[in-house]
Amino acid sequence: MSGLAEARPESSASARPALEIAGLWKSFGQLTVLRGVDLTVAEHEVVCLIGSSGCGKSTLLRCVNLLEPIDAGRILVEGEEITAPGVDVNRMRRRIGIVFQSFNLFPHMSVLRNVTLAPQKATGKSRARAEADATELLERFGLADKRNEYPDRLSGGQQQRVAIVRALAMAPDLLLLDEITSALDPELVAEVLNVIRELARGGMTMVIATHEMGFARDVASRVCFLDGGVILEQGAPADMFSHPREARTQQFLERIIAAGRL
Amino acid sequence: MSGFFGLPSGPRDSGELLRLESGGPPRSHRRIDRAAVKSTSIALVSSVVFFGLLAVVVVNAPNWPAVQNYFFNSEIFDYSLPKVIDAFWVNVRLFLIAEVLILALALLLAVLRSLPGPVFFPLRLLATIYADVFRAIPGLLIIVLLGFGIPGLGIAGVPTDPFLYAVVALTLVYSAYVSEVYRAGIESIHPSQEAAARSLGLSRIQALRYVILPQAVRRVIPPLLNDFIGLQKDTILVSYIGVVEAFRESSIIESARFNSTPYVALALVFLVITIPLARFTDWLVARDRRRFLANAR
Hints:
A: alpha/beta, 10 strands
């Protein structure tokens, strides 16, 4: 099974949220970035994080993936606390995929190897099995003919799609996307966003940090505005973008509209 | 490709240079050919004049006949070259064995030094002390201390073969340098690569093994080869503890015939072996630089 949400049986037994963040604090030295973030994401929900640069969107995602140690608070994935002491970090990370702004493909490996490395080494899939699953995923995202190419031969959009496939190959319960179109040329943004739309339709639970407001309005089940280290306001995209309640949210959206991004 | 010694090697190359400099449309091939021929002939003429003058000065020196006989005696050269080459195989063997051991030990040291966190502090400390100590003490001293010291203890069962101590001493000394080269390579890999590997659920060791090290090693191959050129030459130091290798063989002939020509023969052997390696290293460096520039574009 390639681990896409549509292929996964509905686990109605667990009404537990896919992701639960409670009172998350994080600082880098003197700079406090997150000041008690609370966020709950239900299964199959697509949550978009918006906010000005440096507001902590990326930091929040990196904390959820345990790439950054947190200062206070709790993070639970499907009811299991991943921030508890003594927890197997590697096992937790396998359930949470992340895609980065700068792709971070492994430049010394072919596309296929990029995708099969973790399934083989981290989950112990056989090579044949990992390659068959990877090929299926690559085909699905129009990358089958690139399987033997090296990353530097691909366009930015193709590299980012490979990075998405690489994360999906681990069959994660939750996918985190960290401004994945910010490093792309404008004409390549659409091909990546279409992949995410397809994943959303398939029921993948996702938390997406993004500057693409049009896309957020379109794909999100909920939009969260992050400001001053907390989630200042959240709601359905239609409400958030047309009638923001908070003054800070209004300011932010006005600037975005003035820049022609909404 | 630019020529071996930085000379323009062909019309294609200088054509690219010209285009880069002028920024205009490509010039005609005839123009380019003429420019390449001109710069090559200037280089040739100036080399002939320079080295010619140098030869005239040396040959006309007051003691040249004596020096010529002492260092460039053709009869002794013909006699010693085959013997020196024979003995040189000991150097080659020493070099090859030590090189494999150095690559392994240095990698281990570099990995130890790059382990993060307070738990690994003792290992990091040991690896750091190792690198400091063996880079501080001259290699010849290590060779002598080990080669005479350990067999000198007279412990039963401890081997006395000087070749063994030669291998051990060179491995200890060069591992300290090579581990620093590896470490520079590991540190040159952007942390986002490790983040990407860890985010997929790979352990720290797996990230190092499959993602960081393969990239790091590829990046440090040119500086590694440089260190191995040094190692190749330093193999003659082990003659001090009685390994009969090429330098020892040369000095045996020298003392028997009161003539230093065997050393010149040995120098020639080293030139023949080392220059291709040095050229190859330079070529690798140039190729990496071109790739880097191409990717940065």
